[in-house]
Design a protein that fits this description.
The protein is an alpha/beta fold and 271 residues long. The chain has a single domain, classed as Alpha-Beta Barrel (TIM Barrel), CATH 3.20.20. It is 53% helix and 13% strand. A 9-stranded parallel β-sheet has the order 5-4-3-2-1-9-8-7-6. It is globular, with a radius of gyration of 17 Å. It starts with a helix and ends with a helix.
């Protein structure tokens, strides 16, 4: 059982929902990323999604695009991201870390080399936006050989056939995009989510995390009532962007703590 699977198993046994915050490695700079990751854990994160900065992040809205630009301007690279994970692991052997990014940096390193390096650094899962399940059999094999979970995106437009593709290739959890659009967008259709998430879960046989468009504790709680996990990215990146550097980690921890409290209310209510 992978570290990701263990976390979800423990949470489900306790009737709790997973909180999966996202930050971009190297934003605002490489030295602050590990303290920010530790702040996420202190605030109640169960899994950390760590963005690999890329020059053309097509699935990301303006907030995360700016974070990637800042990180790249500071010299962050895929190798640097792996160094960050390694440094984080020196003080945290239990919190799963999922790298989220795009194919180009991985292709430049080589799929097999990346999978081995990710495992050695302490990465638990990888979500590559532009590696759809039907087109990345070789990469899937590399990750499986390295013992790294491969996480895929599903969206409101995804077909049942795509659900099955993800079930065959994926592991860990499924990341369900709550709306049609990029990260940071709004207007979540909760009725549609209530219909789709059980169908995804039934086919995939994995926990379902929902992200995109979650801005506050109330929205996170509504998502948590439907899904197994809540993924929050743009709103946390905004907190980093708006905070003085010396205050960023504390502000992020406080924000995440509020989301964690809202999700834990669901456990108290028996949801």
């Amino acid at each position: 059982m992978s570290r990701i699977q263990s976390v979800f198993h423990e949470l489900q046994a306790a009737g709790r929902k997973a909180l999966i915050p996202f930050i971009t490695a190297g934003d605002p700079d490489g030295e602050l990323t590990v303290p920010l990751m530790r702040a996420l854990v202190a605030g109640g994160a169960d899994v950390i999604e760590l963005g690999v900065p890329f020059s053309d992040p097509m699935a990301d809205g303006p907030t995360i695009q700016r974070a990637s630009e800042r990180a790249l301007a500071g010299g962050m690279s895929l190798a640097g991201v792996l160094d960050i994970v390694r440094a984080f692991r020196a003080g945290d052997a239990s919190t799963p870390v999922v790298l989220m990014g795009y194919a180009n940096p991985i292709e430049a390193m080589g799929q097999g080399a990346f999978a081995a390096a990710a495992r050695a650094a302490g990465v638990d899962g990888v979500l590559v936006v532009d590696y759809p399940p039907e087109e990345c059999a070789e990469f899937t094999a590399c990750l499986r050989a390295a013992g790294v979970d491969q996480i895929f995106l599903l969206a409101p437009t995804s077909s049942v056939e795509r659900f099955h593709d993800v079930a065959r290739a994926g592991s860990g959890y499924v990341y369900y995009v709550s709306l049609k659009g990029v990260t940071g967008a709004a207007n979540i259709d909760f009725d549609e989510l209530g219909r789709r998430i059980p169908a995804v879960r039934a086919v995939a046989g994995m926990p379902v995390g929902v992200g995109f468009g979650i801005r506050d504790a109330a929205g996170a709680q509504k998502i948590g009532a439907l899904a197994d996990a809540v993924v929050i990215g743009s709103r946390i990146v905004e907190e980093i962007e708006a905070s003085p550097r010396a205050q960023a980690a504390a502000n992020v921890e406080a924000f995440v703590r509020g989301i964690r409290a809202a999700l834990d209310e669901l456990a108290g209510a028996g949801t």
